[in-house]
């Protein structure tokens, strides 16, 4: 990590706040002691709650991590229902991977297809807002869809593909709003023209209702195992015929273009710095290996230009209109109405409850 994160700070030894926070929170966010026993107890609990039902848990399917969760759930004897959010940007390889993996694992799939015109305008609203958060609508909708599906089907567990060791470092200035419906709807109100009718979403109050009234629990099952990115890819390729996308979250054409073109060209942001910093802190690669990887372009200029033409056309823009959006002054979430301070307070409360052992890690 470097000063492309404007909020970064370094101690007297030259270690940044991201690394010190990682070390401080590792014990709070990951299980210790007899982890295998804890996992077995959790699996027994999920099975018991799902007895007599077609499914005992919900999983989202998208990229490598969530695909591994599907594989792990079946290995542990669970009965998952896979849920996929189709936002119109899935690559052909992503679709083939999902179909192949779920067929091989004998897992049922529910796909929610968003109204493309509505979602297209929301993504354009985020581009016009000139913040680096244009992927937030998809992430928010996926979480909302998982909660809604679990509620409607009476399922108490959502098995998440998140794991603290490899996904905890990401500056809020680079990507904010995953849980902030106020932020998302105000971006659409300011820059869009239509109401969001089919877009899955959740408020802070709905999140409270799902968690404490309906007792639906998000379980980060990967925190209970020795999760190694390189080994995970090998397992998926060997056992399921899954094919690698070449990078984190690059199963989506828009994500691929956004992370490889818009973020570095407009905002000077390279998200690989955060992704690789997680792997360094978790001991999966060295710092020198990470620096070497940063020197390599994941996509050639030829493929970036092809993606650019495809994305601009799919958005219904001219190249001149797209370039005018790219040339707008940079903004951040702080320039628009949001629930940042409320969400930070909630996260601090959850952190305290986890630290005291009142909430699961």
Content-based structural category: alpha/beta
Major β-sheet, in short?
A: 5 strands, parallel
Low-confidence stretches: none
Task: Tell me the CATH topology.
Answer: Rossmann fold
How does the overall form come out from the CA principal axes?
A: globular
Number of domains: 1
How are the strands of the largest sheet arranged? 3-2-1-4-5
Distance between the termini: 26 Å
> How much is the radius of gyration in Å?
20 Å
The count of strands amounts to 5
Instruction: Name the beta content range.
Output: 5-15%
CATH homologous superfamily label: HUPs
Helix content: 40-55%
- Named at the architecture level, the CATH assignment is 3-Layer(aba) Sandwich
The total count of helices amounts to: 16
Question: Which quaternary structure do these chains form?
Answer: single chain
> SSE order in H/E notation?
HHEHEHEHHEHHHEHHHHHHH
């Amino acid at each position: 990590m470097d000063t492309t994160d404007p909020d970064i700070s370094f101690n007297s030894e030259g270690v940044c706040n991201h690394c010190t926070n990682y070390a401080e929170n590792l014990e709070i966010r990951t299980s210790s002691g007899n982890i295998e026993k804890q996992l077995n107890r959790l699996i027994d609990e999920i099975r018991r709650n799902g007895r007599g039902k077609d499914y005992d848990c919900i999983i989202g399917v998208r990229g490598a991590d969530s695909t591994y969760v599907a594989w792990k759930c079946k290995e542990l004897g669970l009965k998952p229902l896979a849920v996929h959010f189709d936002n119109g940007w899935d690559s052909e390889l992503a679709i083939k991977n999902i179909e192949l993996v779920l067929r091989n694992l004998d897992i049922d799939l529910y796909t929610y297809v968003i109204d493309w015109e509505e979602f297209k305008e929301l993504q354009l609203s985020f581009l016009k807002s000139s913040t680096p958060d244009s992927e937030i609508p998809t992430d928010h909708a996926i979480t909302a869809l998982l909660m809604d599906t679990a509620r409607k089907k009476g399922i108490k567990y959502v098995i998440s593909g998140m794991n603290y060791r490899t996904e905890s470092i990401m500056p809020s200035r680079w990507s904010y709003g995953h849980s902030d419906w106020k932020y998302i709807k105000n971006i659409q109100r300011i820059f869009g023209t239509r109401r969001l009718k089919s877009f899955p979403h959740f408020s802070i109050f709905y999140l409270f209702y799902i968690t404490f009234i309906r007792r639906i629990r998000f379980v980060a099952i990967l925190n209970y195992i020795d999760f190694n990115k390189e080994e995970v890819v090998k397992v998926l390729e060997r056992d399921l015929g899954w094919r690698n996308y070449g990078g984190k979250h690059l199963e989506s054409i828009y994500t691929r273009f956004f992370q490889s073109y818009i973020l570095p060209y407009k905002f000077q942001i390279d998200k690989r710095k955060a992704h690789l910093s997680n792997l360094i802190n978790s001991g999966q690669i060295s710092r020198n290996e990470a620096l070497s990887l940063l020197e390599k372009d994941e996509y050639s200029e030829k493929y970036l230009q092809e993606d650019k033409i495809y994305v601009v056309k799919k958005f219904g823009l001219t190249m001149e209109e797209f370039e005018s959006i790219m040339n707008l002054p940079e903004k951040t979430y702080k320039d628009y109405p949001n629930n940042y301070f409320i969400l930070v307070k909630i996260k601090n409360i959850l952190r305290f409850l986890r630290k005291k052992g009142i909430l699961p890690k």
